[in-house]
Amino acid sequence: MSELYVGLMSGTSMDATDAVLVQIDADGKPALHTSLSFPIPIELRNRLLQLSVSDQWRADEFAELDVLFSEHSAVAVNELLSKAQVPAGNVTAIASHGQTVRHKPGHRSPYTLQLGDPSRLAFNTQIDVIHDFRRKDVAAGGQGAPLVPAFHRHIFAQREKSVAIVNLGGIANITWLGPQQQLLGFDTGPANTLMDQWIQHCNANKSYDENGHLASQGKVIEELLNVLLQHPFFSRKAPKSTGREEFNLAYLEPLLKANYTPEDVQRTLLALTAETLSNEINGLPTKPEQVYFCGGGTNNELLITEITQRLGSTICGTTQELGVDPQWVEAMAFAWLGWCYEHKRPGNHPAVTGAAAPVVLGSKTLFA
Ligand SMILES: Nc1ncnc2c1ncn2[C@@H]1O[C@H](COP(=O)(O)OP(=O)(O)O)[C@@H](O)[C@H]1O
Ligand SMILES: [Mg+2]
Description:
Layout: E1 3-10, E2 16-24, E3 30-39, H1 42-53, H2 59-84, E4 91-104, E5 111-115, H3 118-125, E6 129-131, H4 135-139, H5 148-156, E7 163-168, E8 171-177, E9 183-190, H6 193-202, H7 213-216, H8 222-228, H9 232-235, H10 249-252, H11 262-282, E10 290-294, H12 301-309, E11 315-318, H13 329-342, H14 350-353, E12 363-365
Parallel strand pairs: 1-4, 4-6, 7-10, 10-11
Antiparallel strand pairs: 1-2, 2-3, 4-5, 6-12, 7-8, 8-9
Helix pairs in contact: 1-2, 2-3, 6-11, 8-11, 11-12
Bound molecules: adenosine-5'-diphosphate and magnesium ion.
Magnesium ion (MG) binds next to β2.
Enzyme class: transferase
Keywords: ATP-binding, Carbohydrate metabolism, Kinase, Nucleotide-binding, Transferase
Organism: Idiomarina piscisalsi
């Protein structure tokens, strides 16, 4: 029997909540029904950003943002369903990622924390909500991230061919699908987050560098690139995951010199993404014949060109070539993880996250 799930995803970029309605058949095969990108209002975004980098947390601010993000998510779901002309009663569950404000799987008490009160989301939509997808993997000793590789294998695996799926969100993560169903997956470092934070710092009216426009006016500052490449994350072995905790302006700014221009810094940050990602791809157990990009960075032509140039004979394209719009892959992955929860199937993969065992991811909050 096929079922309908809503997948909700808002990543490190905090640009928008991506909402998808997905039809999933009895074998877990997903088909995208309707999609919507619902921007996060600027004031909410700024408060979430502040919370995610601040060392001093106010309990009241945390609690209020938990509610506000949940209300934002509920409006996104209700708009999605009205666009789809599907009544709430036809949807099995919402799979809600929530907004990450802390991700520290390497802490002495490992944790990962996503905001978006599931009770309010369930009540405001009249749909059951599956949430907190990362926590059980962390409880099992895993990174809690990335979670998309299992989905990538489920829908993109190709026999007798080694391929890679690269998600260019705030953070970049890679999934390697080997010829004998092997799977590797890990974060490679920043994709867009440093570029976004830098252009926002230079120009309050910009949230990202459209098509790499600013970067294209600059040139790589080799000494800065070399210092950035010394970040310990890049030499850490997988399983590994990262976030704004490690890659933010507090890390970047002390490395800048007065004579660096904004466009040269932007170009260098773009080169950092291209360099670190291509190093990881070139170091995979077998070189992928093809790399398929997804996530917002797919729209940055300069970034894609810079990555492609570093990959030699590997053919580069987007997941569109595999039949899935690159913008919706991650939200669809969470819709599928919701299906996995309902059908008691493990959603993590220990080879990817480092968890001690496969576990069913998420918790469920009923709407009534
Ligand atoms: N036209 C574009 N040119 C350059 N970058 C873009 C473009 N469109 C989207 N992006 C980048 O993609 C990011 C959003 O990607 P997304 O996959 O939603 O990431 P996340 O999962 O972190 O939310 C934006 O913050 C921006 O950096
Ligand atoms: Mg996004």
